[in-house]
Design a protein that fits this description.
mainly alpha; 0% strand; single chain; elongated
Length: 84
């Protein structure tokens, strides 16, 4: 899990601009839910181009982990403190 989180950090375009991965046509960065969030902030604060589809990927992918965890929590609530 730590390796996947670190990989996700490098796939999310926080430091490098959107043009770098648009040129390569890397669909993995466009499908990354955090890429839309980062590009949305760039659009609002820096006047970057509208993120378009990337933002919709973020909006549609966001509620799924929250809903999944809220359905799973009642089942593992008793043993959750022991695991953490």
């Amino acid at each position: 899990m730590p390796f996947l989180l670190q990989l996700w950090l490098f796939v999310t375009p926080v430091v490098y601009p959107r043009a770098w991965y648009r040129r390569d046509g890397a669909p993995s960065t466009v499908l990354n839910p955090m890429a839309g969030v980062v590009e949305g902030f760039r659009w609002m604060l820096l006047g970057a181009p509208w993120p378009g589809g990337m933002l919709w990927v973020s909006v549609l992918a966001g509620p799924h982990p929250v809903m999944g965890r809220s359905l799973l929590l009642p089942e593992v609530e008793d043993s959750f403190a022991d695991v953490v």
